[in-house]
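Before we proceed, please read the two lines closing this message. Tell me what the token row says about the fold.
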Amino acid sequence: MSDIKVGDVVQLKSGGSLMTVSEVNDAGWSECTWFDKDGVVKKHYFLMVTLQKHETPKPNKPRTLTHGVQL
């Protein structure tokens, strides 16, 4: 079973808009919500095997040189 859960940000494996998972059921389907290019809320059910989690890159910690200069 997938580790996708309600609240995760996902995308179709083939690409497309980032979507928020709003429901997951035992049959392997997930309801996703997103905004289209006009700002209209859209919802649709997708098979969970067609989705992948979108990992938000974590910002790098600033590095401090020996003289106190941050990079």
Q: What stands out?
A: The chain is about 0% helix and 40% strand. The radius of gyration is 18 Å. The mean pLDDT is 89. Residues 4 and 53 are 7 Å apart (CA to CA).
